[in-house]
Amino acid sequence: MAVASIYTRSTAKLVAPFIKEGQIIVNVAKGIEENTLLTLTEQISEEIPKANVCVLSGPSHAEEVSRGIPTTCVIGATTRETAEYLQTIFMSPVFRVYTSSDVLGIELGGALKNVIALAAGAADGLGYGDNTKAALITRGIAEISRLAVKMGAHSETLQGLSGIGDLIVTCASMHSRNRRAGILIGKGYTMDEAMAEVKMVVEGVYSTKAAKALADKYEISMPIVEEVNDVLFNNKPAKKAVEDLMLRDKTIESPIVSW
Questions:
Q1: Last residue of a domain, one of 72, 102, 132
Q2: pLDDT (tens digit, 0 to 9) for every residue of the chain, 259 residues total?
Q3: Which residues are registered as beta bridge partners of 192?
Q4: CB atoms closer than 10 angstroms to residue 213
Q5: What residues are labeled active site?
Q6: What's phi and psi for 94, nearest 5 deg?
Q7: Residues 224 and 128 reside in one and the same domain
Q8: What predicted TM-score, i.e. pTM, was given to this entire model?
């Protein structure tokens, strides 16, 4: 299913009468439903309970895939048999596919990286450099991993293609709608002005509120997500958000690596 995340549920509801028992549906969109906090495969499964819903995700801008540029992704499925079946279908000399049982981790990585990409774009718009972007990527994946693990995903998934891999490409590429919108916001555009300029769905805008709600629900510290939320919905200047991130209380980088 390849529709913008905000139309996933309505599309699933429309096609439900035509789906046979056990039909495999592969979701390739990335997002979280704001009002239910459900992932896209969870939404599809609710609307089409007889379907076998899987996910294909990773660093894969369509503009490059369509040109045959070598790309690598991961298939998430509830059974090894389904995952390997889909792996065989999608594999090609220019499109390599790995398999995983961690559907939740794959989807959280794909959805939440869009929020961090907005922050990375805003940093670009403010005129900051590679140091700032590297910090946002590494601290961003730390935030995503904390939440995903608390929700039941595996940390290794977030260190893979659908986590750090997708985050890197989304934060670095001008193909990324989220980064482009973030650049405009960093230059002083409002959220609505930036979305109108990009002229396509900016998934990170819809995922930011959901990410903030999930952080609150699971009591996970996600300072970058909180600042992006304030910039988008509370009119906080992007420059002030960066300053507040830099001036947070001192802390250890990794609590599990201590003296």
A1: 102
A2: 999 899 999 999 999 999 999 999 999 999 999 899 999 999 999 999 999 999 999 999 999 999 999 999 999 999 999 999 999 999 999 999 999 999 999 999 999 999 999 999 999 999 999 999 999 999 999 999 999 999 999 999 999 999 999 999 999 888 888 999 999 999 999 988 998 898 887 888 889 999 999 999 999 999 999 999 999 999 999 999 999 999 999 999 988 887 8
A3: none
A4: 15
A5: 113
A6: -120, 5
A7: yes
A8: 0.92
